[in-house]
Amino acid sequence: MKKLFATAAFILAASTGIAAAQNWSAEIYGGVSLQDKLKYGIMSFDTDQGTTLGFGVYNTGWVQGLALGLDVMYTNVGYIGYPTSVDSTSLMLNARYAFPLGGATEAYVGAGLGAINVHYDGASAYPAFTGSDVVAGGQLELGMRYKMAAGNLFAAVKYQAAFEDARIKRETQEFHNTSVIVGYAFNF
């Protein structure tokens, strides 16, 4: 994980010498994690709707329409019928490509690779199984944004998944999440 953070910091630091200051944006977003089914151990359980929060920093000074950056996202969903939950914190190196739709509106697609800290909370029912594991993962994103003031208002659907199950205290925890988000990106 330390190597991932160091590599991401190096890439962002190196890009500051290449791109002008007006090619940067910082965004903040929130939304809902949709209901799903996740495997815990050998059984699958339904999850309830949850929360998603995140922020990102992007540089658009490389190729017209292309943005490269870092995305940090937190999700939380509870298992239906159990006082337990799964949350995640991810750090992704992300690339997005925008397509003008006319006027101040554009669509974009994105993909990222990075690390996901998957945390199972057994709460008071199963405290011995509470724990975390960091696994490699990726994300896909499809969104629209509208240019306004000094930034962009955006909405997107973001899918994120671990490439392998997390191993937490003798059990495996599957992780994938689909979120619907809205946010604002500040250009500078």
From TrEMBL:
Coiled coil: none annotated. The keyword Membrane does not apply. Residues 9-186 form the Outer membrane protein beta-barrel domain. InterPro entries: Beta-barrel_OMP, OMP/PagP_B-barrel. SUPFAM superfamilies: OMPA-like (SSF56925). Residues 1-21 form the signal peptide. It comes from the Bacteria. Keywords: Signal. It holds the Pfam family OMP_b-brl. This is Outer membrane protein beta-barrel domain-containing protein. It comes from Rhodobacter ferrooxidans. The lineage of its organism: Bacteria, Pseudomonadati, Pseudomonadota, Alphaproteobacteria, Rhodobacterales.
